[in-house]
Write a structure and sequence with these properties.
The complex is a heterodimer of chains A (675) and B (177). Chain A is an alpha+beta fold and 675 residues long. Helices cover 62% and strands 12% of the residues of chain A. In chain A, the strands form two sheets. Chain A has a five-stranded antiparallel beta sheet. A four-stranded antiparallel beta sheet of chain A has the order 1-9-8-7, with no helix packed on it. In chain A, helix 8 crosses helix 11, helix 9 packs antiparallel against helix 10 and helix 16 packs antiparallel against helix 18. The longest helix of chain A is centred in the N-terminal third of the chain and has 32 residues. The two termini of chain A are 45 Å apart. Chain B has 177 residues and is an all-alpha fold. Helix content of chain B is 53%, strand content 1%. Chain B is built from seven helices and one strand. The chains are: A alpha+beta (675), B mainly alpha (177). Chains A and B meet through helix 13, helix 14, helix 16, strand 1 and strand 3 of A and helix 1, strand 1, helix 3, helix 6 and helix 7 of B.
Chain lengths: 675, 177
């Protein structure tokens, strides 16, 4: 199977080169047979990559240790579900996953749009082919997952224990799905630029793809936060690590696009900007992959350094050069069809919102790259860690949170004073009351007060929209309130799904604000001894060390320390944190011991317990006890955000607006779609 | 259920706190050190939160020493913090001493001086530049807008006839669809 996989990669490379060439020639020379050949090339590439993936999976599941990748990331005693996830645990496998996902998305996009957007599709096929071929070339020439060892080891190295977590079976694929699916909107944007079909037709084609990509990235980021929280044991979920930042960057630009595209659909404005955002999002997704794989920036997530970083750098520069050159070439034809009518309008608010998103993305990118810049310019190595990112991004984030509430309430074209008063009276009153209440409670952190008060403001605006919309349906149609609410959302999923996303963001910000009140305590306890920890809410936790038990479990030796937990004298239960020494099938230790934290979570706070180890090998245990307020809100906020995204992209009830359809009609797209 | 299963074990594990702790079989997870009350000192934590552990973990010294208990670097840096505080140094002096010893990269954020100011200022310069540019573009767009006659506003409190309400209902349905 390994040889078959290898051959499949080589054929995929050749087919990809053919497909890339004929796609652009077919489009430019208007030769449909070449365009069709290019589309078929994408399907064939998908088939070959599927074959290669099956080959790698089979090698992993059958422990074919003659293959270097299998020996490096699995062992005979690795549980089956983690053996499966070893597919993308290393650089080589993850490149194959990237390639097969892009090919899959590309094939689906071509299938779904067959018979539509005929001027664009050859270029869409061409761009997909180029991206897939790049990844296949990176594998064939630099990181081949089917590379053989000169000998057959008795057992493999096994999977890094920190990757042996359910979150890791989902988080990386979600991020890959997010990164890779940006290729489709990018391909359509390139198609529009090359073909000169610059109306809103391409926007309709990519709407769901953009949402899908945004949704996958959001899921991947939140799952990554959850994994870091439960698995790494440092008590937090976001460390502003370069690789975390790399995943956030395209999400920020995509979010900006999802807002600004509404202006293009409704008013025919911001065409250049929207194309720029799609190009930027794609380039940032490649940039993220470059950072992970090049080793240019120190990161806990980095794969082993290799020459593959250069592949990505060259691809990044080439893609940026071609994309922006095309944008510059079409610049004169991308004039807005309407003009702004007032600074106090929905359009203007979306422009401010876009500016804040881009400035946040810039500050994250700037902070991520500053160590390199400092070394180049001044020869001084610096570290840019959480204190920097928090200092810069917290005020920007709060500004964005405020706009989240303001934007949707302001009318399109021009808002009147009466409109502003009617929309903002109650939310603003609630915000001021919240801030006053928190100050009266002697809350000392100004940023946290700002976050909570603005959160209440945004929640007020969203609730007001739902209440007014439901009330209007109830009055107009005589529907019951629950039915009116369901129909309100169902008939305009895009708008109300967006509001649900905003609620999710409020919950996330509330969770982030809770970090201001985090506390850590270290304690060494003999069995029977206790430590007391104060919560920011005023109650006291008492933790009584029960002892340490040791046992073998699956592929590891476990040392588990347990504590009885009391809150203000009330018994809550037992918490158990573990140290795990993973072993290979020969019983030999592999990797450093890893930590399994114990978490007791509720809506107010998390009690987060880490068993650090035992003093001199006795049952006297060292613990770190962390009180993490409002973490619950981060996970549920993430879920609400995803639910909102799903509502927004659910088929029906949220298609292109009438204005947007009218804008696409002169270009003939609508006629082609319906024939 | 979980507690019931654990109960006998819990009682067995509860011991006299004055008795020496029993030895654990190997391979145990051995800590050579025992934290002291000073490890929880807020000043120590604050200082260590600003110092980057040099073991390659990308964490600050406090987080590293209370997370990766196999790391030998962060406990050593922790001891250095305590020793420097004991010698009479202030928090700022302790941090400055670390910077002299390891260079700027030992700080979790670039110190605000010289070229490093660029790191802090640029995002806000970007914001200011963006706001000015946006303001300029928006004013130009607004000035270029052809003047459209505005319809006279409806009188305050106007309710509309049943016919008008019906028409509005039909329009809303069309809009929502």
């Amino acid at each position: 199977m390994a040889d078959l996989g290898n051959i499949a990669l080589w054929i995929a490379l050749l087919i990809g080169l053919w497909g890339s060439a004929v796609a652009f020639v077919g489009g430019l020379k208007r030769r449909p047979e070449l365009a069709r050949s290019a589309e078929r090339a994408v399907y064939v590439q998908w088939g070959l990559l599927f074959l290669a993936s099956v080959g790698l999976l089979r090698a992993l599941l059958t422990h074919d240790f003659t293959i270097e990748y299998v020996a490096a990331y699995t062992s005979r005693n690795l549980p089956l579900y983690y053996t499966w996830s070893a597919f993308y645990a290393g650089q080589k496998g993850s490149l194959l996953l990237w390639a097969i996902i892009v090919a899959s998305f590309g094939s689906v996009a071509l299938l779904v749009n067959r018979g539509k957007y005929r001027d664009l599709m050859p270029y869409v096929a061409g761009v997909v082919s180029v991206v897939v071929t790049f990844f296949v070339a990176a594998m064939v020439f630099s990181s081949n997952p089917f590379e053989r060892l000169g000998f057959t080891p008795a057992d493999g190295n096994g999977l890094n224990p920190q990757l042996q977590n359910p979150g890791m079976t989902i988080h990386p694929p979600m991020l890959y799905l997010g990164y890779t699916s940006i290729t489709i909107p990018y391909a359509f944007a390139m198609g529009a630029l090359i073909s000169g079909r610059l109306d809103t037709g391409w926007i309709h084609a990519i709407r769901r793809w953009t949402l899908l990509s945004w949704l996958f990235l959001a899921c991947g980021i939140v799952l990554g936060m959850w994994w870091a929280y439960v698995e790494l044991g440092w008590g937090g979920y976001w460390a502003w690590d370069p690789v975390e930042n790399a995943s956030l960057l395209p999400w920020l630009t995509m979010t900006a696009f999802l807002h600004s595209v509404m202006i293009q659909e409704k008013r025919g404005m911001l065409k250049k900007w929207n194309l720029g955002l799609i190009i930027g999002s794609f380039l940032l997704s490649i940039f993220g992959t470059f950072i992970t794989r090049s080793g240019v920036i120190s990161s806990v997530h980095s794969f082993a350094q290799s020459s593959i970083g250069y592949f990505f750098l060259i691809f990044l520069v080439a893609a940026a050069g071609v994309s922006f050159a095309l944008l510059a070439y079409r610049w004169p034809r991308l004039e807005a069809e309407a003009k702004l009518e007032s600074m106090v309008s929905r359009e203007a608010m979306f422009l401010f919102n876009n500016l804040i998103f881009i400035v946040i993305a810039f500050s994250v990118l700037w902070g991520t790259l500053f160590p390199i810049l400092s070394e180049w310019i001044k020869g001084t190595k610096v570290t840019v860690g959480p204190p920097f990112f928090n200092q810069v991004n917290v005020p920007l984030g709060l500004l964005l949170l405020g706009l989240t509430g303001i934007g949707p309430l302001i009318a399109w074209r021009q808002a009147t004073t009466a409109n502003l008063k009617r929309q903002f009276l109650w939310p603003t009153t609630l915000m001021v009351l919240t801030a006053a209440f928190l100050l009266a409670l002697r809350m000392s952190d100004g940023w946290a007060i700002g976050a909570f008060a603005l959160g209440v403001f945004v929640t007020g605006t969203v609730v007001q929209e739902f209440v007014r919309g439901t009330g209007a349906r109830h009055r107009l149609h005589g529907e019951s309130y629950p039915l009116a609410l369901v129909r309100l959302v169902g008939r305009n999923r895009r708008r109300y799904g967006g509001y649900v996303v905003h609620l999710g963001m409020v919950m996330l910000f509330a969770g982030f604000a809770g970090l201001a009140f985090k506390s850590d305590t270290e304690a060494t306890l003999k069995p029977g001894q206790a430590v007391e920890v104060k919560s920011p809410y005023g109650h006291t936790y008492r933790l009584v060390h029960q002892g340490v038990s040791q046992y073998e479990q699956l592929n590891r030796f476990v040392s588990a320390a347990s504590l009885d937990v009391y809150r203000d004298g009330t018994y809550l239960g037992v918490m158990k944190s573990e140290k795990r020494q993973h072993l290979n099938s020969l019983g030999r230790p592999t990797f450093e011991p890893s930590t399994e934290v114990a978490i007791r979570s509720d809506i107010r706070e998390d009690l987060y317990l880490v068993y650090a180890g035992s003093v001199q090998g006795t049952e006297e245990a060292v613990y770190r006890v962390t009180i993490n307020p409002l973490v619950w809100w981060v996970w549920y906020g993430g879920m609400v955000l995803v639910v909102g995204g799903i509502i927004t992209m659910w088929p029906g009830g949220g298609g292109p607006t009438a204005a947007s359809r009218r804008r696409a009609e002169p270009a003939g797209y609508v006629a082609q779609v319906t024939t | 259920m979980f507690l019931a299963v654990l109960a006998p074990w819990r009682h067995a594990a509860a011991q006299d706190t004055t008795a020496p702790a029993a030895r654990l079989p190997q391979p145990g997870v051995v800590q050579e050190r025992s934290p002291t009350s000073r490890d929880n000192d807020l000043l120590v934590k604050a200082i260590e939160g600003k110092i980057h552990c040099t073991c390659g973990c990308n964490l600050d010294v406090f987080t590293c020493r209370t997370t990766d208990f196999t790391c030998a670097t962060s406990p050593a840096m922790h001891r250095l913090v305590l020793a420097r505080l004991d010698s009479g140094m202030t928090a700022a002096q302790v941090i400055a001493a670390f910077e002299r010893q390891y260079g700027q990269s030992v700080l979790m954020a670039p110190p605000k001086r010289g070229f490093n100011w660029a790191a802090y200022v640029m995002p806000f310069v970007g914001l200011g530049f963006g706001l000015v540019l946006l303001g300029f573009i928006m004013r130009r767009w607004i000035r270029a807008r052809p003047v459209e006659p505005l319809e006279p506003p409806a009188p305050a409190g106007a309710e509309g006839s049943n016919e008008e309400l019906e028409r509005l209902k039909r329009e809303l349905e069309k809009f929502e669809a």
